[in-house]
Specification:
Elements: H1 4-18, E1 33-35, E2 43-44, E3 51-60, H2 71-89, E4 92-102, H3 107-123, E5 127-135, E6 139-148, E7 164-168, H4 173-182, H5 190-201, H6 207-212, E8 220-222, H7 227-238, E9 241-245, H8 260-269, E10 276-280, H9 285-295, E11 299-306, E12 317-320
Parallel strand pairs: 4-5, 9-12
Antiparallel strand pairs: 1-2, 3-6, 4-6, 7-10, 7-11, 8-10, 9-11
Helix pairs in contact: 1-3, 2-3, 4-5, 4-8
This protein binds adenosine-5'-diphosphate and magnesium ion.
Amino acid sequence: MLSEFSLIERFFARRARASTPPLPNEAAKVPRAALGIGDDCALIVPPAGQQLAISTDMLVEGRHFFADVDPHALGHKALAVNLSDLAAMGAAPHAFTLALALPRADERWLAAFSDGLFALAERFGCELIGGDTTSGPLNICITVFGDVPPNAALRRDAAKPGDDIWVSGTLGDARAGLGLLRGEWALADDACAAQLKRALERPEPRVALGLALRGVAHAALDISDGLAGDLMHILKRSNAQAVVDADAVPISRALALLPAEARRACALAGGDDYELCFTAPAGAREAVERIGERENVPVTRIGTIEPIDSPADAPSIAWRDRAGAPLSLTLQGFDHFHAD
Ligand code: ADP
Ligand code: MG
């Protein structure tokens, strides 16, 4: 049976040390950890003049993933959802900590989990610098540290009337994948079904896009709880309203195979996509298109930010169809303390 310390050494500390050399094209990047795993604290050196961007996300068995999920995918997703928060802020990933509660020290599970975790960490030059390991119901909590120049962060409170509203990628696949696992619907096309499940289990954090949008976008966030709910966060923080063309919200070919109602609910209110939703002035349209092409991420304009003129009005989303006719949709983002 593995002890706590041999478990940490074998699956996390050794791998972290092995993955620390600077990436070839990043030799100039400031060293990430001045002191990594093994002491009471890690020490990090924030790059001169930059702000530290910090975010924590927790994944709980039965709430965020099924007990039998592929541990490699789980390692990927646990870090991906955290990197996505840095992306949404326009921050560059530097380091992360990992707090892990494990029901048992299953070596095969740990090997696959840490493989998935480090594969993504290495792609983004993000170093594991510490954590905590305990026995208990499976729970994975990661804190990421990134950096962003002062005044460059893409904040939720920065949307301006007249801004376009954009989203990256396509929306709804992850929720559709969850529906497949739960048996809410089925797809005859195996390749499309696999694509939807992959979206749920292996989201791609839009780090390069977030960095490229610095100085171009106004407000941004990552869509973790569904477009309808997450866009409301921008509107509330920016005290604004939105008009959104529901038919302009981009969906994949796989999602298009679902019945119309399920398709729309997944795209507009489904969570776990980790695409970016951002606003940018109309004058930046070409710049945004070019960034999307350069970063190889589709970007789609879905609506506009409108001012709140009367104190009686509250932040809200007016949904329209392709022809501009109003749609009355009751859409809710995911809320952990309400039944879904
Ligand atoms: P402490 O007793 O101070 O809580 P621990 O004995 O829990 O320290 O951890 C020893 C070292 O191993 C620390 O540097 C800690 O950051 C690191 N560590 C513990 N668990 C993990 C983990 N899951 N991933 C990475 N580092 C870890
Ligand atoms: Mg500890």
